[in-house]
Write a structure and sequence with these properties.
2 domains, Rossmann fold, single chain, aromatic amino acid biosynthesis, five-stranded parallel beta sheet, magnesium, binds iron/sulfur cluster, ATP-binding, metal-binding
């Protein structure tokens, strides 16, 4: 596999400042997302821009198995493909690589945790209509899906997984691959989004789930999709979590002594909590229970020096 990885090096950086940009990125860049979201295409361009190596895990799987993804699914079933994929992902031990993963990588928590250790996870999010336009060979593409499972069903099933592991999400339904790469680079280099610790990541997932419930009812958004305003609120909440002075000691925002949200955002969040809170118990019981436990923690006090 090592030979395969080294063969995939992409060189010839076209931008004069790409080396300085890549010097800000100490680890790997891992692209996740649905088939048709442009991971492989954007990955090659990104590697070229940043002077990094490029790795496509679907190619690694095929080289490892000496057969195509579709052959694996046809011969051994989609669960077998997911198992092989997990094994291949867990064997990856590289630095300074852009890694384009298969669309089913996010089913493996072990694999995603492994990739997170040395990489920043970028979710390329194309909406369902864009995917329908782009994917012409859905049935023969070698996807790890159930027999007869529709693209729509697969999209909704995986969306939650991608969001769970994403450090950065790039909406790419209507922009070119070059623009996708520009957005990834600026998001990383400008430090617009930092990686969240497990506690804060959990908090962010809870906010996201509540906003989705609220948006579906009040803004008629599609299943698991949110409108632009709600997407902005999710992004805003994430920024606040990144800067939250309490970090791992954080209780829930409702018990906070600072309340760092602006007035209008705070009002929106309160309305969402009131509506979605009770519904979380039925829709996301584990998340709701963890949130309840977090809310039982005493609100931490900020040290005087940190207040200044
Ligand atoms: S409201 Fe308080 S607990 Fe919540 S993110 Fe802001 S500072 Fe942190």
């Amino acid at each position: 596999m090592k030979k395969q990885q080294s063969l995939l090096k992409v060189s010839n950086c076209e931008k004069t400042d790409c080396r300085s940009k890549s010097s800000h990125i100490k680890k790997n860049i891992v692209l996740i997302g649905m088939p048709g979201s442009g991971k492989s295409t954007a990955g090659v361009i990104l590697a070229k821009i940043l002077g990094m190596h490029f790795l496509d895990t679907d190619i690694l799987i095929q080289a490892d198995q000496q057969r195509t993804l579709q052959d694996i699914v046809d011969q051994d079933g989609h669960m077998s493909l997911r198992e092989i994929e997990e094994k291949v992902l867990l064997e990856i031990n590289v630095e300074n690589h852009v890694i384009a993963t298969g669309g089913s990588a996010a089913y493996s928590h072990a694999a995603m945790t492994h990739l997170q250790k040395d990489g920043i996870i970028i979710f390329l999010h194309a909406d369902l209509n864009a995917l329908k336009r782009r994917i012409k060979n859905y049935e023969t593409r070698g996807l790890a899906k159930r027999r007869g499972q529709s693209l729509e069903d697969l999209f909704h099933e995986r969306l939650t997984l991608y969001r769970r592991y994403a450090d950065i999400t790039i909406e790419n339904s209507f922009i070119s691959q070059e623009q996708v790469c520009e957005q990834i680079v600026s998001a990383i280099v400008d430090g617009q989004q930092q990686q969240l610790s497990p506690r804060l990541r959990r908090e962010h997932e809870t906010i996201q789930a509540m906003v989705e419930i609220y948006c579906r009812k009040h803004h008629q958004s599609e299943k698991k999709e949110v409108c632009n305003d709600c997407a902005k609120l999710i992004k805003y909440a994430r920024k606040k979590l990144e800067k939250c002075p309490f970090q791992e000691n954080k209780s829930t925002c409702g018990k906070c002594t600072i309340h760092c949200y602006k007035k209008d955002m705070k009002e929106k969040v309160i309305a969402i909590m009131r509506y979605s809170g009770p519904k979380m118990i039925r829709k996301h019981p584990v998340m709701a229970f963890r949130h309840f436990l977090d809310s039982r923690k005493p609100a931490p006090q900020l040290k005087k020096s940190a207040k200044k």
